[in-house]
Amino acid sequence: MYKRVQFLILSFFLFSNVFTQGKGNGFGFTFDGGNPIMNLLSSISSSNSTIQLTPTLYFIQNLSFGKVEPSISYYSTTYTDTDWDGSTSTETNSTIVLGIGFLEDKLKYDNYNTYWGGRISVTSNSDLDVFLIAPVYGAEYNFSNNFSIGGETRINYAFDNSDSEMSVIDISAHLFFRFYK
Q1: pLDDT tens-digit readout, 160-172
Q2: Mean pLDDT per 10-residue run, the chain (181 residues)?
Q3: What is the dihedral of CA 124, 166, 42, 130, to 10 degrees?
Q4: How far is residue 35's CA from residue 170's CA, in Å, rounded to a whole number?
């Protein structure tokens, strides 16, 4: 399954300009090493878990008021349990996180701009839905009309719909790579 997701992400990267609608649209990606959704899922599960991350893929749509960035992430969590007799068992679960961001430019210079906005995400598996709400502030440096590198700070609030109603609040930083048409 992990190989298929890698292939799917690579395909999105290679064919992103086919899916864009107009000048300035495109795709981007970032690595979510401290994703609060995965932190929340880890705290619910056993302590013997390993989380494998792939980049979060963003599709950039420039509009008159700013940007809309739908996103998709894939996570694989492996749980290892040791029984009383010393035998170990391993279970792997996969999670796909869907999200959308609404961003508005604040300061705009020739090659540099700042923005602010918000992002929401949701993931669902058989018995649990996890939601994320995050106000964001970021900056982006354009190396050309087709490529930029940026950073974004988020105040994340992740919560679930379980009976125990667990939640996580944290601050995270993300390094973005964006490719425009």
Answers
A1: 877 777 888 888 8
A2: 48 48 74 61 56 78 86 79 78 82 90 94 78 94 91 90 78 89 84
A3: 20
A4: 9
CA triplet 108, 113, 115: central angle to 5 degrees? 100
Q: Rounded CA gap, 77 and 177, in Å?
A: 25
- Strand 26-30 relative to strand 56-63: parallel, antiparallel, unpaired? antiparallel
Helix/strand number for the chain, H first, E second = 2, 9
What CA–CA distances, in Å, run from 172 to 45, 61, 152? 22, 24, 8
pLDDT in the model for residue 108: 85
Place of tokens 């018995």: 127
3 state SS of 6: helix
Which residues are paired to 124 by β-bridges? Answer: 129
The radius of gyration of the chain from alpha carbons, rounded to an integer in Å, stands at: 18
C-alpha torsion sign, points 175, 39, 162, 123: positive
Instruction: Name the DSSP class of 41.
Output: H
Q: Is 17 left (phi over 0), alpha (psi -120 to 50) or beta?
A: alpha
